[in-house]
Amino acid sequence: MCMSIKNTTQDVKDTLKLQPKISVQGKIVCYKNSKQTLLDCLESADIEVHYHCRDGFCGACRVKLVEGEINYPMGEPLAFVGEQEILPCCCIPITDITLLIDE
Ligand code: FES
C-alpha cells in the first residue's frame, strides 16, 4: 500500500499529462480536467461526497485515501485530516488513486 501527499510544481505539471484514474465505490473515474478539484471530478461522475465549505476549512468532505498520491495546489488545508485522510474539495490526484467514502 502506498499513500503520500506531495506539493511540488512538477507533481502538478505531471498531473496534467497523466489524467489519473480514481477508483471509488466500484467505479473508475478519469481525472481529465486539471482545473477541477477532486470533489468536482467525483460530482461530475455522480459520486456523492458530503461537503460544506468547499475550501479546506470545515473537513466535511474528508475521505480515506487508500492508495495513490494527491496534491493540495493552494497549499495545505486548515481542516484537520487524520492519517490516510484527504479533503477532495481542495486537492487533485497526482497518480491513480483509490478512495473509500463513508456513506
Ligand atoms: S468541504 Fe469543507 S473542507 Fe472540504
From TrEMBL:
InterPro entries: 2Fe-2S_ferredoxin-like_sf, 2Fe-2S_ferredoxin-type, 2Fe2S_fd_BS, Beta-grasp_dom_sf. It comes from the Bacteria. Pfam families: Fer2. Residues 20-103 form the 2Fe-2S ferredoxin-type domain. Coiled coil: none annotated. CDD domains: fer2 (cd00207). The keyword Iron does not apply. The keyword Lyase does not apply. Keywords: Ubiquinone. NCBIfam families: PRK10713.1. This is 2Fe-2S ferredoxin-like protein. It comes from Colwellia echini.
